[in-house]
Design brief:
Elements (H helix, E strand, L loop, with lengths): L11 E5 L6 H12 L2 E4 H15 L11 H5 L3 E6 L2 E6 L2 E2 L7 H11 L2 H15 L4 E5 L2 H5 L5 E6 L2 H11 L7 H20 L12 E4 L5 H13 L5
Parallel strand pairs: 1-6, 1-7, 2-6, 7-8
Antiparallel strand pairs: 3-4, 4-5
Helix pairs in contact: 1-9, 2-4, 7-8
Bound molecules: cytidine-5'-monophosphate.
The site of cytidine-5'-monophosphate has 14 residues, from α2, α4 and α8.
């Protein structure tokens, strides 16, 4: 029989949502406040993409890679305090994972069964001991279906585009900038929502959080209080 509080000492919290909804920065801060670890699953898909681009593997050959082929790519993930640090080709990567080139190819890579199978095991291993905040597209629906708290973050497209531009260093984006970035984001969302495997969906048991008019502190505080309500924060 399942006790109501079983697992609550080591909760898993998932944050899913479309591009630019603020998942990663929010997840990172929620994890910091709770003393949990943070897993940015988008970073893992980006690392595989970067490794393939660096290897010069033509994109039309990516779909024929097997799970073992993906696993053989020079991508290493290790615990680094409360974060996971990612290495590609033997060097730590961060900003390189977010270049427009990687961003342009990652949704295709993420639609391939071999890449999802390769990362599923790694992500579940990261969650084994609980006390984890994982963000991505399928954290609550596929990777951690039994997560203790699931949140689905949304925000208006133009607001998400504006945030992405500001994060990228454009301090006051023009309307044209926002319109262009909205197009890029909408295309990636379409790809992520329409793919066959692990499409972007709100899990039925996830809390919907619209961040369009919330500031960062409000977003973080809302999620932290959902976790604290479990009696485990
Ligand atoms: O979150 P981020 O924008 O870094 O994710 C990059 C891409 O990785 C997404 O557009 C999506 O194609 C893929 N992804 C995914 N499943 C996840 C996380 C990311 O398919 N759990």
């Amino acid at each position: 029989m399942t006790e109501p509080n079983e697992g609550m000492q080591a909760p898993v919290v998932t944050l899913d949502g479309p591009a630019g909804s603020g998942k990663s920065t929010t997840a990172k801060e929620v994890a910091r406040r709770l003393g949990f670890r943070h897993l940015d699953s988008g970073g893992l898909y980006r690392a595989l993409t970067l490794a393939l681009l660096e290897a010069g593997t033509p994109r039309d050959e990516w779909a024929s890679l097997t799970e073992e082929g993906m696993r053989a790519l020079p991508v290493r993930v290790s615990r680094d305090g409360t974060e996971f640090s990612i290495e590609v080709g033997g060097r730590p990567v961060q900003a390189e994972l977010r270049t427009p080139e990687v961003t342009a190819h990652v949704a295709f890579l993420a639609s391939l069964p071999a890449s999802r199978a390769c990362l599923l095991r790694l992500q579940r291993t990261a969650g084994e001991q609980g006390r984890l905040v994982a963000d991505g597209r399928d954290m609550g629906s596929v990777v951690f279906p039994d997560a203790d708290v699931k949140v689905y973050l949304v925000a208006d497209l133009s607001e998400r585009a504006r945030r992405r531009l500001v994060e990228g260093g454009v301090s006051e984006p023009s309307e044209d900038d926002v319109a262009r970035e909205s197009g890029v984001i909408a295309e990636r969302d379409r790809h992520d929502s329409e793919r066959e495997l692990s499409p972007l969906r709100k899990p039925a048991d996830a809390h919907l959080l619209d961040t369009t008019r919330l500031d960062f502190e409000e977003q973080v505080a809302t999620i932290v209080s959902l976790v604290e309500a479990l009696g485990a924060g």
